């Protein structure tokens, strides 16, 4: 234990002396938190809408006002005889054409067809627009007394856990997981490779310290750095976005400790397998950042990932920690909701520890 602590103290001393590494540990994670949290938006707003009203009646104007009253669409000026030109020119995402007999047919109890043209270059955005137009049209007919309210079944929908639909409650806990996976592992990988580039790894091999002691010593140092990063971004998340613990925070705290251990051990494994810092950074960026961003459920649901790539998600620690953070900051169900995720984090941490110790053990063997 004494040798592990000595190795940890040496790593922390080197860490404090390197200003670039300190900036990498704290400035970049904070910048990532703000960039991701403010830039990523899953709910489409301010959709440019072009309207051509051939009816020019009170009813058609009321319908147009109802579309804009959703606060999802914004009026777009366009020129020409056809609003399709606004879509072709990229000025509008949707165009609505109201026929000249719009109000007359409705008053007569007949169906009036309103033409809706949607830009389909973004499939998800097009689906949101189409559903919003349909829902707004139905609400317009009901509020104007033009559609009988005789449904036998009416769904009373209430959004649970996040009734205000704050996107930050969904995005920010995921950003925590991405940050705490990338930067502690990156720092640990660079620290391990630096020993090789400077030649000091030979002194370690010649000493009596074992591979497991070397890993635990270095890992403990960057685990403590990771704890500091976690505290910094969680406090900033509370101050800037108002996100705090929901329910019992114990599963989240335990999960953070295990997840940081997994992150650091993954970085040490990458550092043990690479020979230069540039190679280590590229390996962490490819195997760490891309998987944490795309295969963890951070942005896209895991159910959308096709087979056989979906099998890889079972070995992504970020996937399980995101479930822990979203429960700890949003749902608050506690141990019963995240016990399996915590178990998988422990298993993956032990796998990384075993793999990195085997790599270093082989390197320490005499020729």
Q: What percent of residues are in strands? A: 5-15%
Overall geometric form:
elongated
Uncertain spans, ≥5 residues at pLDDT below 50?
Answer: none
Number of helices: 14
Report the sheet with the most strands, covering strand number, pairing sense and barrel closure: 4 strands, mixed
**Radius of gyration, taken over Cα atoms and rounded to an integer in Å:** 28 Å
Side-by-side strand order of the widest sheet: 2-1-3-4
Please state the average pLDDT score.
84
Counted up, domains total 2
For the secondary structure, the number of strands is 4
Instruction: Report the span from N to C terminus.
Output: 29 Å
| Helix-strand makeup class | mainly alpha
Helix-strand sequence: HHEHEHEHEHHHHHHHHH
Helix content: 55-70%
């Amino acid at each position: 234990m004494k040798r592990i602590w000595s190795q940890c103290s040496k790593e922390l001393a080197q860490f404090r002396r390197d200003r670039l590494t300190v900036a990498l540990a704290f400035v970049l994670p904070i910048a990532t938190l703000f960039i991701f949290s403010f830039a990523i938006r899953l709910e489409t707003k301010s959709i440019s809408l072009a309207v051509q009203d051939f009816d020019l009646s009170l009813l058609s104007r009321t319908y147009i006002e109802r579309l804009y009253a959703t606060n999802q669409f914004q009026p777009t000026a366009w020129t020409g005889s056809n609003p399709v030109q606004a879509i072709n020119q990229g000025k509008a995402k949707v165009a609505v054409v109201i026929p000249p007999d719009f109000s007359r047919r409705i008053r007569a109890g007949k169906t009036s067809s309103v033409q809706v043209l949607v830009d389909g270059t973004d499939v998800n955005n097009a689906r949101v627009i189409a559903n919003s137009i349909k829902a707004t049209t139905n609400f317009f007919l009901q509020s104007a007394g033009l559609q009988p309210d005789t449904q036998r079944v009416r769904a009373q929908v209430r959004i649970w856990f996040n009734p205000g639909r704050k996107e930050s409650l969904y995005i920010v806990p995921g950003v925590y997981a991405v940050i705490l996976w990338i930067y502690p592992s990156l720092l640990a990988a660079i620290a391990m490779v630096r020993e090789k580039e400077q030649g000091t790894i030979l002194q370690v091999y010649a000493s009596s310290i074992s591979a497991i002691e070397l890993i635990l010593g270095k890992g403990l140092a960057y685990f403590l750095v990771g704890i500091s990063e976690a505290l910094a971004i969680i406090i900033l998340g509370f101050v800037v976005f108002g996100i705090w613990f929901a329910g019992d925070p114990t599963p989240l705290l335990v999960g953070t400790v295990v997840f940081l251990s997994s992150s650091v051990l993954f970085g040490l494994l990458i550092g043990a397998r690479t020979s230069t810092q540039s190679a280590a950074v590229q390996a962490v960026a490819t195997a760490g950042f891309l998987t944490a961003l795309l295969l963890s459920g951070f942005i896209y649901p895991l159910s959308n990932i096709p087979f056989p790539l979906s099998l890889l998600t079972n070995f992504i620690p970020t996937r399980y920690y995101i479930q822990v953070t979203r429960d700890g900051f949003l749902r608050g169900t506690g141990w019963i909701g995240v016990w399996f995720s915590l178990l998988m984090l422990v298993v993956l941490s032990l796998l990384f520890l075993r793999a990195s110790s085997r790599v270093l053990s082989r390197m320490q063997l005499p020729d």
